[in-house]
Write a structure and sequence with these properties.
With about 375 residues, the protein is an alpha/beta fold. The protein has a single domain, classed as 5-stranded Propeller (L-arginine/glycine Amidinotransferase, Chain A), CATH 3.75.10. The chain contains twelve helices and 21 strands. The strands form six sheets. Strands 1, 2, 6, 7, 8 and 9 form a six-stranded mixed beta sheet that branches. β14, α10 and β15 form a beta-alpha-beta unit. The two termini are about 25 Å apart.
Protein backbone atom coordinates (compact mmCIF):
# COMPACT_ATOMS: atom_id res chain seq x y z
CA UNK A 1 0.00 0.00 0.00
CA UNK A 2 1.13 3.53 -0.69
CA UNK A 3 0.86 5.08 2.76
CA UNK A 4 1.01 8.52 1.21
CA UNK A 5 -2.52 7.94 -0.07
CA UNK A 6 -3.93 7.85 3.45
CA UNK A 7 -5.83 10.96 4.47
CA UNK A 8 -6.60 12.31 7.90
CA UNK A 9 -9.50 10.58 9.62
CA UNK A 10 -10.92 10.68 13.10
CA UNK A 11 -12.08 7.65 15.05
CA UNK A 12 -15.26 8.20 17.06
CA UNK A 13 -16.56 5.45 19.32
CA UNK A 14 -20.24 6.24 19.31
CA UNK A 15 -22.90 4.26 21.15
CA UNK A 16 -26.63 4.66 20.72
CA UNK A 17 -26.89 6.37 24.07
CA UNK A 18 -24.41 9.11 23.13
CA UNK A 19 -25.68 12.68 23.25
CA UNK A 20 -25.81 13.30 19.49
CA UNK A 21 -26.13 10.58 16.89
CA UNK A 22 -24.36 10.56 13.51
CA UNK A 23 -27.73 11.06 11.82
CA UNK A 24 -28.34 14.13 13.97
CA UNK A 25 -24.91 15.37 12.94
CA UNK A 26 -25.97 15.16 9.30
CA UNK A 27 -24.77 11.72 8.20
CA UNK A 28 -26.73 9.22 6.13
CA UNK A 29 -26.01 6.12 4.08
CA UNK A 30 -26.47 7.18 0.44
CA UNK A 31 -28.21 5.05 -2.15
CA UNK A 32 -25.92 2.95 -4.32
CA UNK A 33 -26.83 4.87 -7.49
CA UNK A 34 -25.62 8.18 -6.03
CA UNK A 35 -22.25 9.33 -7.44
CA UNK A 36 -19.23 7.27 -6.41
CA UNK A 37 -15.69 8.34 -5.75
CA UNK A 38 -14.54 4.73 -6.10
CA UNK A 39 -15.39 1.05 -5.73
CA UNK A 40 -13.47 -1.09 -3.25
CA UNK A 41 -12.56 -4.71 -4.05
CA UNK A 42 -10.18 -7.30 -2.60
CA UNK A 43 -8.30 -9.69 -4.85
CA UNK A 44 -9.32 -13.36 -4.40
CA UNK A 45 -6.79 -15.64 -2.75
CA UNK A 46 -8.62 -17.93 -0.31
CA UNK A 47 -9.14 -21.09 -2.32
CA UNK A 48 -11.35 -22.51 0.40
CA UNK A 49 -14.13 -20.22 -0.83
CA UNK A 50 -14.04 -21.94 -4.25
CA UNK A 51 -12.79 -25.46 -3.47
CA UNK A 52 -11.89 -27.27 -6.66
CA UNK A 53 -12.99 -24.31 -8.80
CA UNK A 54 -10.60 -21.47 -7.98
CA UNK A 55 -8.72 -21.27 -11.30
CA UNK A 56 -11.30 -19.16 -13.24
CA UNK A 57 -12.06 -16.80 -10.34
CA UNK A 58 -9.20 -14.28 -10.87
CA UNK A 59 -10.29 -13.90 -14.49
CA UNK A 60 -13.86 -13.13 -13.40
CA UNK A 61 -12.47 -10.48 -11.05
CA UNK A 62 -10.33 -9.07 -13.84
CA UNK A 63 -13.40 -8.67 -16.05
CA UNK A 64 -15.29 -6.93 -13.25
CA UNK A 65 -12.38 -4.57 -12.55
CA UNK A 66 -11.90 -3.87 -16.27
CA UNK A 67 -15.52 -2.73 -16.54
CA UNK A 68 -15.51 -0.70 -13.34
CA UNK A 69 -12.24 1.08 -14.12
CA UNK A 70 -13.81 2.50 -17.30
CA UNK A 71 -16.26 4.44 -15.10
CA UNK A 72 -14.67 5.06 -11.71
CA UNK A 73 -11.55 4.49 -9.66
CA UNK A 74 -11.03 1.00 -8.27
CA UNK A 75 -9.43 0.66 -4.84
CA UNK A 76 -7.97 -2.85 -4.92
CA UNK A 77 -6.76 -4.69 -1.83
CA UNK A 78 -4.02 -7.30 -2.28
CA UNK A 79 -2.20 -9.34 0.33
CA UNK A 80 1.38 -8.31 -0.49
CA UNK A 81 3.80 -6.91 -3.06
CA UNK A 82 4.20 -10.18 -4.94
CA UNK A 83 0.46 -10.56 -5.34
CA UNK A 84 0.27 -6.96 -6.57
CA UNK A 85 2.87 -7.66 -9.27
CA UNK A 86 0.98 -10.76 -10.42
CA UNK A 87 -2.35 -8.96 -10.42
CA UNK A 88 -0.99 -6.05 -12.44
CA UNK A 89 0.17 -8.49 -15.13
CA UNK A 90 -3.19 -10.24 -15.21
CA UNK A 91 -5.12 -6.97 -15.38
CA UNK A 92 -2.93 -5.83 -18.27
CA UNK A 93 -3.81 -9.05 -20.10
CA UNK A 94 -7.48 -8.28 -19.43
CA UNK A 95 -7.05 -4.75 -20.86
CA UNK A 96 -7.96 -3.05 -17.59
CA UNK A 97 -7.05 0.63 -17.15
CA UNK A 98 -4.32 0.45 -14.52
CA UNK A 99 -4.22 4.24 -14.26
CA UNK A 100 -7.63 4.08 -12.60
CA UNK A 101 -6.70 1.35 -10.10
CA UNK A 102 -4.99 1.96 -6.74
CA UNK A 103 -3.47 -0.95 -4.85
CA UNK A 104 -3.45 -1.39 -1.07
CA UNK A 105 -1.32 -4.12 0.52
CA UNK A 106 -3.43 -5.35 3.40
CA UNK A 107 -3.96 -8.90 4.60
CA UNK A 108 -7.49 -10.28 4.22
CA UNK A 109 -9.09 -13.58 5.15
CA UNK A 110 -11.74 -13.38 2.46
CA UNK A 111 -12.76 -10.90 -0.22
CA UNK A 112 -16.42 -10.12 0.54
CA UNK A 113 -15.98 -6.39 1.15
CA UNK A 114 -19.72 -5.70 1.13
CA UNK A 115 -19.70 -7.32 4.54
CA UNK A 116 -16.20 -6.84 5.96
CA UNK A 117 -15.63 -3.28 4.71
CA UNK A 118 -16.94 -0.12 6.30
CA UNK A 119 -20.21 1.46 5.16
CA UNK A 120 -19.43 4.92 3.85
CA UNK A 121 -21.72 7.77 4.88
CA UNK A 122 -22.28 11.15 3.35
CA UNK A 123 -23.86 14.38 4.55
CA UNK A 124 -27.59 14.92 4.48
CA UNK A 125 -28.94 17.01 1.66
CA UNK A 126 -28.58 20.66 2.78
CA UNK A 127 -32.32 21.20 3.04
CA UNK A 128 -32.76 18.22 5.36
CA UNK A 129 -29.77 19.12 7.50
CA UNK A 130 -30.84 22.75 7.82
CA UNK A 131 -34.35 21.71 8.72
CA UNK A 132 -32.93 19.99 11.81
CA UNK A 133 -30.50 22.80 12.48
CA UNK A 134 -27.61 20.35 12.22
CA UNK A 135 -25.28 18.78 9.71
CA UNK A 136 -22.58 21.43 9.34
CA UNK A 137 -19.88 19.36 11.02
CA UNK A 138 -20.61 16.36 8.82
CA UNK A 139 -20.37 18.53 5.73
CA UNK A 140 -17.08 20.02 6.89
CA UNK A 141 -15.55 16.58 7.49
CA UNK A 142 -16.48 15.42 3.99
CA UNK A 143 -17.82 12.03 4.91
CA UNK A 144 -18.09 9.30 7.47
CA UNK A 145 -17.56 5.56 7.72
CA UNK A 146 -19.77 3.33 9.85
CA UNK A 147 -17.28 0.71 10.99
CA UNK A 148 -19.49 -2.09 12.23
CA UNK A 149 -17.94 -5.21 13.72
CA UNK A 150 -17.45 -8.17 11.40
CA UNK A 151 -17.36 -11.77 12.65
CA UNK A 152 -17.69 -13.78 9.40
CA UNK A 153 -21.46 -14.03 9.53
CA UNK A 154 -21.28 -15.62 12.99
CA UNK A 155 -20.28 -18.83 11.20
CA UNK A 156 -16.58 -19.02 10.31
CA UNK A 157 -13.45 -18.67 12.42
CA UNK A 158 -11.17 -16.83 9.96
CA UNK A 159 -12.20 -13.18 10.18
CA UNK A 160 -9.64 -11.27 12.24
CA UNK A 161 -7.80 -9.76 9.28
CA UNK A 162 -11.09 -8.88 7.63
CA UNK A 163 -12.36 -7.06 10.71
CA UNK A 164 -9.48 -4.55 10.38
CA UNK A 165 -10.30 -3.68 6.76
CA UNK A 166 -13.14 -1.22 7.43
CA UNK A 167 -10.94 1.07 9.49
CA UNK A 168 -8.17 0.97 6.89
CA UNK A 169 -10.62 1.85 4.11
CA UNK A 170 -11.95 4.78 6.13
CA UNK A 171 -8.41 6.07 6.64
CA UNK A 172 -7.62 6.07 2.93
CA UNK A 173 -10.91 7.82 2.17
CA UNK A 174 -10.32 10.46 4.85
CA UNK A 175 -13.69 9.57 6.37
CA UNK A 176 -14.59 10.11 10.00
CA UNK A 177 -14.68 6.66 11.59
CA UNK A 178 -17.82 5.88 13.54
CA UNK A 179 -18.20 2.68 15.56
CA UNK A 180 -21.92 1.92 15.91
CA UNK A 181 -22.84 0.54 19.30
CA UNK A 182 -25.73 -0.68 21.37
CA UNK A 183 -25.54 -0.72 25.16
CA UNK A 184 -21.81 0.00 25.01
CA UNK A 185 -21.12 -2.95 22.68
CA UNK A 186 -20.13 -2.56 19.05
CA UNK A 187 -22.79 -3.83 16.68
CA UNK A 188 -22.11 -6.59 14.17
CA UNK A 189 -23.68 -5.81 10.79
CA UNK A 190 -22.82 -6.75 7.21
CA UNK A 191 -23.52 -4.49 4.25
CA UNK A 192 -25.28 -7.33 2.43
CA UNK A 193 -27.87 -7.48 5.20
CA UNK A 194 -29.30 -4.07 4.28
CA UNK A 195 -30.24 -1.95 1.28
CA UNK A 196 -31.24 1.73 1.38
CA UNK A 197 -32.96 4.29 -0.83
CA UNK A 198 -30.82 7.12 0.58
CA UNK A 199 -33.88 9.03 1.78
CA UNK A 200 -34.69 7.27 5.03
CA UNK A 201 -35.91 3.77 4.14
CA UNK A 202 -33.97 0.54 4.59
CA UNK A 203 -34.63 -3.09 3.63
CA UNK A 204 -33.50 -6.04 5.75
CA UNK A 205 -34.66 -9.54 6.76
CA UNK A 206 -35.82 -11.15 9.96
CA UNK A 207 -33.91 -14.33 9.16
CA UNK A 208 -30.56 -12.53 9.15
CA UNK A 209 -30.95 -10.18 12.09
CA UNK A 210 -33.59 -11.68 14.39
CA UNK A 211 -32.90 -15.43 14.18
CA UNK A 212 -30.85 -17.19 16.85
CA UNK A 213 -29.11 -19.13 14.09
CA UNK A 214 -25.85 -17.35 13.16
CA UNK A 215 -26.88 -14.73 15.71
CA UNK A 216 -24.78 -11.60 15.22
CA UNK A 217 -25.82 -9.58 18.28
CA UNK A 218 -27.29 -11.66 21.12
CA UNK A 219 -29.87 -9.63 23.02
CA UNK A 220 -30.61 -7.17 20.24
CA UNK A 221 -34.27 -7.04 19.20
CA UNK A 222 -36.17 -5.55 16.29
CA UNK A 223 -36.52 -2.15 17.96
CA UNK A 224 -32.78 -2.08 18.75
CA UNK A 225 -31.82 -2.63 15.11
CA UNK A 226 -34.32 0.00 14.04
CA UNK A 227 -32.68 2.50 16.36
CA UNK A 228 -29.23 1.63 15.03
CA UNK A 229 -30.44 2.14 11.45
CA UNK A 230 -32.00 5.48 12.34
CA UNK A 231 -29.10 6.79 14.42
CA UNK A 232 -26.13 5.58 12.41
CA UNK A 233 -27.40 5.23 8.82
CA UNK A 234 -30.06 7.94 8.72
CA UNK A 235 -32.73 5.36 7.86
CA UNK A 236 -35.57 5.36 10.43
CA UNK A 237 -38.10 3.62 8.16
CA UNK A 238 -37.37 -0.12 8.20
CA UNK A 239 -39.01 -2.67 5.91
CA UNK A 240 -38.62 -6.16 7.32
CA UNK A 241 -38.72 -9.02 4.84
CA UNK A 242 -38.77 -12.64 5.94
CA UNK A 243 -36.30 -15.29 4.78
CA UNK A 244 -33.40 -15.26 2.35
CA UNK A 245 -32.98 -17.55 -0.62
CA UNK A 246 -31.99 -21.21 -0.38
CA UNK A 247 -28.22 -21.78 -0.34
CA UNK A 248 -27.30 -18.44 1.25
CA UNK A 249 -24.73 -19.17 3.96
CA UNK A 250 -25.17 -15.67 5.43
CA UNK A 251 -28.58 -16.79 6.69
CA UNK A 252 -30.78 -14.30 4.91
CA UNK A 253 -28.94 -11.39 3.31
CA UNK A 254 -31.36 -9.03 1.60
CA UNK A 255 -29.09 -8.28 -1.36
CA UNK A 256 -30.09 -11.59 -2.94
CA UNK A 257 -33.78 -10.76 -2.48
CA UNK A 258 -34.79 -7.14 -2.93
CA UNK A 259 -32.96 -3.97 -3.95
CA UNK A 260 -33.83 -0.31 -4.30
CA UNK A 261 -33.23 0.99 -7.83
CA UNK A 262 -34.66 4.47 -7.16
CA UNK A 263 -36.05 6.18 -4.05
CA UNK A 264 -39.52 4.71 -4.61
CA UNK A 265 -38.83 1.57 -6.66
CA UNK A 266 -37.71 -1.86 -5.48
CA UNK A 267 -36.86 -4.91 -7.56
CA UNK A 268 -37.67 -8.19 -5.86
CA UNK A 269 -36.72 -11.72 -6.81
CA UNK A 270 -39.62 -14.04 -7.58
CA UNK A 271 -39.81 -17.72 -8.44
CA UNK A 272 -42.45 -18.81 -10.96
CA UNK A 273 -42.23 -22.57 -10.34
CA UNK A 274 -44.50 -23.55 -7.46
CA UNK A 275 -42.53 -26.70 -6.71
CA UNK A 276 -39.27 -24.76 -6.28
CA UNK A 277 -38.10 -24.47 -2.66
CA UNK A 278 -37.72 -20.70 -3.07
CA UNK A 279 -41.29 -20.17 -4.25
CA UNK A 280 -43.16 -19.74 -0.96
CA UNK A 281 -40.53 -17.68 0.83
CA UNK A 282 -40.20 -15.29 -2.12
CA UNK A 283 -43.99 -14.94 -2.35
CA UNK A 284 -44.07 -14.03 1.34
CA UNK A 285 -41.41 -11.37 0.79
CA UNK A 286 -43.40 -10.02 -2.15
CA UNK A 287 -46.51 -9.83 0.04
CA UNK A 288 -44.62 -7.90 2.72
CA UNK A 289 -43.16 -5.50 0.20
CA UNK A 290 -46.57 -4.77 -1.29
CA UNK A 291 -47.82 -3.85 2.19
CA UNK A 292 -44.79 -1.68 2.97
CA UNK A 293 -44.53 2.09 2.71
CA UNK A 294 -41.61 4.44 2.17
CA UNK A 295 -40.45 7.15 4.59
CA UNK A 296 -43.23 9.45 3.37
CA UNK A 297 -45.94 6.81 3.83
CA UNK A 298 -46.26 6.11 0.11
CA UNK A 299 -46.52 2.60 -1.40
CA UNK A 300 -43.51 1.36 -3.31
CA UNK A 301 -43.29 0.71 -7.01
CA UNK A 302 -42.43 -3.00 -7.16
CA UNK A 303 -40.71 -4.63 -10.13
CA UNK A 304 -40.39 -8.40 -10.20
CA UNK A 305 -37.07 -9.94 -11.16
CA UNK A 306 -37.04 -13.65 -12.10
CA UNK A 307 -34.83 -16.19 -10.43
CA UNK A 308 -32.47 -18.27 -12.55
CA UNK A 309 -32.99 -22.00 -12.56
CA UNK A 310 -31.21 -23.83 -9.74
CA UNK A 311 -27.43 -23.60 -9.95
CA UNK A 312 -25.96 -26.76 -8.44
CA UNK A 313 -22.43 -27.86 -7.65
CA UNK A 314 -21.41 -30.96 -5.72
CA UNK A 315 -25.10 -31.62 -5.03
CA UNK A 316 -25.47 -28.25 -3.32
CA UNK A 317 -27.80 -25.48 -4.43
CA UNK A 318 -25.96 -22.18 -4.69
CA UNK A 319 -27.41 -18.70 -3.93
CA UNK A 320 -27.70 -17.61 -7.56
CA UNK A 321 -29.78 -14.44 -7.91
CA UNK A 322 -29.93 -11.57 -10.38
CA UNK A 323 -30.73 -9.27 -7.44
CA UNK A 324 -27.05 -9.36 -6.47
CA UNK A 325 -26.21 -6.72 -9.10
CA UNK A 326 -23.93 -3.76 -8.39
CA UNK A 327 -24.65 -0.14 -9.39
CA UNK A 328 -21.63 2.04 -10.21
CA UNK A 329 -21.10 5.31 -12.09
CA UNK A 330 -22.55 4.80 -15.55
CA UNK A 331 -22.74 1.02 -15.24
CA UNK A 332 -24.65 -1.85 -13.61
CA UNK A 333 -22.86 -5.20 -13.28
CA UNK A 334 -25.30 -8.11 -13.29
CA UNK A 335 -24.52 -11.76 -12.47
CA UNK A 336 -25.75 -14.17 -15.14
CA UNK A 337 -25.76 -17.96 -15.20
CA UNK A 338 -26.28 -19.14 -18.79
CA UNK A 339 -29.96 -19.42 -17.97
CA UNK A 340 -33.02 -18.61 -20.07
CA UNK A 341 -33.97 -15.92 -17.54
CA UNK A 342 -30.66 -14.06 -17.99
CA UNK A 343 -32.10 -12.00 -20.82
CA UNK A 344 -35.30 -11.15 -18.93
CA UNK A 345 -33.30 -9.95 -15.94
CA UNK A 346 -30.94 -7.88 -18.08
CA UNK A 347 -33.80 -6.29 -20.02
CA UNK A 348 -35.65 -5.47 -16.79
CA UNK A 349 -32.62 -3.78 -15.27
CA UNK A 350 -31.82 -1.96 -18.52
CA UNK A 351 -35.30 -0.40 -18.44
CA UNK A 352 -34.78 0.65 -14.82
CA UNK A 353 -31.32 2.15 -15.50
CA UNK A 354 -31.70 3.82 -18.92
CA UNK A 355 -28.66 6.07 -18.43
CA UNK A 356 -26.32 3.27 -17.35
CA UNK A 357 -24.68 0.48 -19.29
CA UNK A 358 -25.98 -2.89 -18.06
CA UNK A 359 -23.15 -5.43 -18.27
CA UNK A 360 -23.63 -9.18 -17.72
CA UNK A 361 -20.88 -11.00 -15.83
CA UNK A 362 -20.95 -14.78 -16.07
CA UNK A 363 -21.08 -15.97 -12.45
CA UNK A 364 -21.68 -19.70 -12.66
CA UNK A 365 -18.21 -20.29 -11.20
CA UNK A 366 -18.12 -17.21 -8.99
CA UNK A 367 -21.29 -18.15 -7.09
CA UNK A 368 -19.58 -21.32 -5.84
CA UNK A 369 -18.00 -18.86 -3.39
CA UNK A 370 -21.60 -18.14 -2.25
CA UNK A 371 -21.59 -14.55 -3.50
CA UNK A 372 -21.39 -12.47 -6.68
CA UNK A 373 -21.27 -8.79 -7.78
CA UNK A 374 -22.80 -7.06 -4.79
CA UNK A 375 -21.14 -9.27 -2.18
CA UNK A 376 -17.64 -8.48 -3.41
CA UNK A 377 -17.96 -4.69 -3.87
CA UNK A 378 -18.24 -1.70 -1.55
CA UNK A 379 -18.93 1.76 -2.90
CA UNK A 380 -17.23 4.91 -1.67
CA UNK A 381 -19.55 7.87 -2.40
CA UNK A 382 -18.43 11.33 -3.33
CA UNK A 383 -18.43 13.24 -0.06
Amino acid sequence: MNKSLAKHSTNISHSIESEQTPAERGYRMPAEWEPHEATWLAWPHYQGDWPGKFEPIPWVYAEIIRNLARHERVELIVNDAQVERNVRKLLLCADADLKNIRFHRWRTNRVWLRDSGCIFLTSQQPGIAEMHGRGSRAQQSGGGAANFRFNAWAKYSNWRDDEKIGGLMAGIAGAQKIQPGHRDKRVVLEGGAIDVNGEGTILTTEECLLSKIQQRNPGMERKDYEKVFADFLGAPNVIWLGRGIVGDDTHGHVDDLARFVSPGTVVIAVESKRNDENYKLLQENLRRLRAARDQAGKPLNIVELPMPGPVMFEKRRLPASYANFYIANGIVLVPVFNDANDRIALNTLAELFPTREVVPIYSGDLVWGLGTMHCMTQQQPRF
